Amino acid sequence: MTTEFRLVVDGKTHTIRVDDPHMPLLYALRDELGFSNPHFGCGLAQCGACTVHVDGQPVRSCITPLSTVKGAKITTLAGLGTPEHPHPLQTAYVEEQVPQCGYCINGWIMTAAALLKATPHPSDQQIRDGLAGLKCRCGTHMAIIRAVKRAAQA
Amino acid sequence: MTINPTTLLRQDLTRRGVLKGTGALVVSFTAPAAIANAATAAGSAPKRLDPTQLDSYLAIHRDGSATAFFGKIDGGQGTDVGIAQIVAEELDLPASRVAVVMGDTALTIDQGGASGSFGITWGGKPMRNAAAEARQFLLGLAAKRLKTPVEKLTVANGVVSVMGAPARKATYGQLIGGHFFNVTMKWNGKMGNALDVEGTAQPKKPADYKVVGTSPKRRDVAHKVFAQPATYVTDMRVPGMLHARVVRPPTAGAVPNSIDESSVKAIPGVRIVHKDGFVAVLADKEWNAVRAAEKLKIAWSQTAAVFPEPAALYDYIRKAPTRHRKVEKQTGSFDQAIAGAAKTVTADYEWPFQSHASMGSACALAEIKNGTLTLWTGSQKPHYARDGVAALLEMPAEKVHAIWRTGPGSYGRNDAGDAALEAAFLAKTVGRPVRIQGMRPEGIAWDPKGPASIHHARAGLDAAGKIIAYQFESKGFSRLEIDSSEKNPGDSILGQQMGLKLSPTDSFGIPDEAYDIPNRLMAWETIAPFLDRASPLRTSHLRDPVGPQIHFASESFIDELAHAANADPVAFRLQHLKGRDAAAVKAAAEKFGWDPRVSGPRGDPKADVVTGRGIAYVKRLGTIVAVVAEVEVDRRSGKVRAKRFAVAHDCGCVVNPALLHATIEGNIVQATSRSLWEEVRFDRQKVTSVDWETYPILDITDAPEKVDIVLLNHPEIPPTGAGEPSSRPVAGALANAIFDATGVRLRRAPFRPEQVKSSLAT
Taking CB atoms and an 8 Å cutoff, what residues of chain A touch B222? Predict the structure, then answer.
């Protein structure tokens, strides 16, 4: 018994059939649709590595049941910007050479993108507070803050 | 000269490795994916490369560009860029024209993978020598072609020309492009880290460096920022693959008595693989494998309480029988000198088990085709992953092709090595390709741990306040209960669950510094592992293995001595140091704006928030680091904020200043996390740190405001490594700063709010 879902991801509509309607969005994106991002980090919404935008808001796709995103507009890091048309945060990330292992990147960029939309010129403290809880294991936190500031000035 | 398939393959790679310009920014896509895919597409069984052959390290393509084949990997610090620079320097090419292939066992010699901060230090040596030899060979070819003696030739950007007659020229591409050098070099007979080759050519003098010392950018950043396919090992997929999840026991050492297969019957397509203590579930759909692992009912064996009460861990270590004792350094007579000391100081320090807690748990993909097993792995030692798989499955190593792809973080022997062997075993067992990925506990509760330890220090000062006697003894779990690689299946969880016993190496260490102290006794002792197999508290290498714990203790202790001598801690250190060591201490202090005085609280002793500064200085295999930390301590909550650092870093010749900066900054922030927050929790039967709630790390709200870095560059001194050294002084610098702020000496890490608060209260 499978359930059909229609998902709009990065502007394209996909139809998938899944065994479990409660399957988290992350598995639909990675396993069913073949997106290389977002990443599985914890499966517990504790780290942010799986973050995508659902109707413009950052959500942790590892705990977001498919059944709750029917018809929603989903944007992944690859859909946020491209090398040809980069999001200012992506440009800033390249210029600041932020990531080391980079596995955490979806959480920081997707969350920061929403932060900058709401607060185009955040203070250092607003950046830190807005990104609180996201995990980075390589210790690139300060580079992340530099990149968000750079993007805000772009 | 014939062109064999490997040469063609390399040509193909270069054609794929194009630079794509875009309006907004230049993004380099020398796609690692294309490289590995091309290698796989070659289809033939990989054969071992010949370490004596220049061609094993370097290829020149028809367009005159080069590819370096580097037998290590880069974990995100840009080691590959450094290698490109070193090779480019010797070849007189721009770094951008040197591609670097890493971590593919079919294309690179075993240079030991990522290990010991040796990427540039040792890994760069054969690459430099091979490139210098290649340049000499190319000049020889050019001399013939241009009918001009070598001495009259000059090279720029891969074009050899006659001095004074620039129109008479030949490009590297014209001279050899697409062909093998067929040049034999003198190999030192070693594989792994120590591998080196020498030719007859002299590498350049540092004074002539044009590429080394500049800051080309990383090559993987754009892949990551734009979420390019096949960037991570987790992205790799092959047709027909199954997804697997392991099911680890609920308590350490438990084995399944029975498995209720009906418990997962409702989930489509689930397969269970069970051998001895190892259990995994597989399914076509990843989510079904995840659900099945969660739902599978297993009757596990009862186990004894194998771990001590967590609060008694350090007493346990203190009382445990010593397995191995090693006196690593003994000079003069400690006993005599301490007897005559004007003042003696004694202190003990404690450090917990720590987890790699990589950003994601490990992943691997294994496929067996035509008798060859291809393994995609995030292991930082892919050649050893190959060897481990070959040993486990009793296959010749030539029939295993390991392809490294950046993993979800890698700072030592984390869970990646376990995943590699599990994927291979499952692929063989089920006869289909298998992709395995850990859930969160596999990377925190079940990865190999950095060892817990205690440290005893005792020293004597003379009447002038100089250290005349110094004893430093560590006791703890070995840093190598399992090896730092997975080359032996006995060093993996799966191997141990299938009955292979732990065979630990006894290894720890002593402080690395250059204090002028005439009478020393520096030793360490190891104790037995808790459990003889598959322990979640088995130990192995975690970034800068045993460095943070030893130097937390030793540098806290030097500060205690400074205090006992009523001396400023910077001046006290300088009294015992000279040369580059003293220069690093001075540089860090100067960058920070150090205020010379005896450490200890100033101002209102009842203030809620107090600040302090502390210094620590260390060495690591030739690299020298001095760090000054500034902290803010909230006495009400016990919370410590590491606000600011000033770092002086001397690792000899700086190859790439910008990447070195980033590497040091990452070390400082990661080590701050380890110092302030990280401790593996456990109860008598299991590890209870299973996620980020139970294994908290530094949050961005607590990240430092500033890390100032001074690079002390010595182009004439070969590089001594930067991947780890700046991890080790951080805990000491923070503890010393906390003492300065509060007057309270923290001798047990980490400095979590609850611990700091209770220490302040006593």
Answer: 83, 94
